[in-house]
Write a sequence for this structure.
């Protein structure tokens, strides 16, 4: 069974601070995605990483895919209250189109 | 707005009743996924379709759950003889099949409460 563990589970920080969220698995994924979800809504895709070691930037968000394609990280620089939400990673293994979601990291950024 | 549409948004039912949810995907999308999510957790895979074919179904899904996608367009998820443990947000997502960089677009979900 493929599992994606995220850490930390909860994070409460002040506006302007930096943070990193981790997504780890013992399984290899052909690609990994990051989503953000707000209460009462479905997740919204932020980025897809495909190549081991790949780094993608989306404004103040930096995403990295591990060299072995088993883990990923999301780094937010100078967090803002608008970054508040549930961050989810999701991986898909080779030969399947089933997206397995991580356990989630709930981020709260205080003004 | 041509996003993924789910109906109803909320459903309250009594234990033992049957419920059915509907998902209308983005029109040109050929893949459709169903997930279940409980508060503060990540979505849990239930099943997915490519066009009208149901290609994979979670082993966690009991025989009380069934999903269909007639004609490869909208999809329905039915839960028979609901139990309190079925209370959750049921999410639908659709995508356009690609070799790489497939993007899932989610609906706003149906929140089920079983009393």
């Amino acid at each position: 069974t493929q599992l994606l563990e995220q850490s930390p589970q909860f994070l409460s920080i002040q506006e302007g601070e930096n943070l990193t969220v981790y997504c780890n698995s013992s399984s290899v994924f052909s690609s990994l995605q990051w989503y953000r979800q707000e209460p009462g809504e479905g997740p919204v895709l932020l980025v897809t990483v495909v190549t081991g070691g790949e780094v993608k930037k989306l404004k103040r968000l930096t995403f990295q895919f591990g060299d072995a394609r088993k883990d990923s990280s999301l780094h937010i620089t100078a967090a803002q209250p608008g970054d508040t939400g549930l961050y989810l990673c999701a991986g898909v293994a080779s030969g399947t189109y089933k997206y397995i979601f991580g356990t989630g990291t709930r981020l709260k950024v205080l003004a | 707005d041509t996003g993924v549409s789910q109906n109803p948004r909320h459903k309250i039912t009594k234990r033992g009743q049957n419920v059915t949810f509907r998902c209308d995907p983005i029109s040109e999308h050929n893949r459709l996924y169903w997930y279940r999510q409980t508060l503060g957790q990540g979505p849990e895979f239930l099943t997915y379709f490519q066009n009208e074919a149901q290609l994979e179904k979670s082993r966690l899904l009991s025989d009380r759950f069934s999903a269909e996608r007639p004609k490869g367009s909208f999809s329905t998820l039915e839960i028979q003889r609901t139990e309190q443990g079925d209370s959750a947000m049921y999410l639908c997502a659709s995508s356009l099949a690609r070799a790489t960089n497939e993007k899932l677009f989610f609906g706003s979900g149906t929140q089920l409460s079983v009393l």
Remarks:
- The mean pLDDT of chain A is 93.
- The interface with chain B takes residues 4, 6, 31, 33, 40-45, 48, 50, 86, 88, 90, 92, 96-104, 106 of chain A (CB under 8 Å).
- The first strand of chain A starts at residue 5 and ends at 7.
